[in-house]
Amino acid sequence: MTTTATPSSSVSLTRLLAVGSLVGLIVLGLAWEMWLAPVRPGGSWLALKVLPLIVPLAGLLKNRMYTYRWVSLMVWLYFTEGVVRAWSDVLPLSRALALLEVALCLVLFAACAFHVRLRLRNAAAQHPTETASS
């Protein structure tokens, strides 16, 4: 039982990091486009960019492996937006928010990638005869 405690705590940590960074991206996107540094005064429709981030939240909370896999691909769209806006926005606050978005995207990607890797490793360790004969 002690051999499964360490991987399970690592899996829990990666799950916590993934959910936390995803929620962080949602909150950041809304706050950025509505109050902190919107493209237009009073908020902008660009806040709708967080809607696709809400979809995988349920899958991450339910610990679905498939969701971790496709979120690790989808996050690169938000990473790209952060890099472009960090490079091109005029306002220093907007640039700082863009760099925060880039950092959250990197954490989300790493957490999802490690989560999938750890769960696959744990599954292989529980069934060594099936993987050895394949």
Give a quick precis of the structure.
By secondary structure, the chain is an all-alpha fold.
Account of the protein in words:
Keywords: Membrane, Transmembrane, Transmembrane helix. The chain crosses the membrane at residues 12-32, 44-61, 68-87, 93-116. This is DUF2069 domain-containing protein. Pfam families: DUF2069. The protein is mainly α. The chain has five helices and no strands. The relative contact order is 0.16. Residues 1-6 have low confidence and may be disordered.
Task: Write the SSE topology.
Elements: H1 2-36, H2 51-61, H3 65-88, H4 92-126, H5 128-133
Helix pairs in contact: 1-2, 1-4, 3-4
Helix/sheet category? mainly alpha
* Overall pLDDT level: 90
* Through-space gap between termini: 26 Å
Relative helix content: over 70%
In N-to-C order, the SSE pattern is HHHHH
**How many alpha or pi helices?**
5
Number of extended strands: 0
Global shape: elongated
The unreliable regions are 1-6
Largest sheet: none
Rg, alpha carbons:
18 Å
Beta-strand residue fraction? under 5%
List keywords for this structure.
134 residues, mainly alpha, 83% helix, transmembrane, DUF2069 domain-containing protein, membrane, transmembrane helix
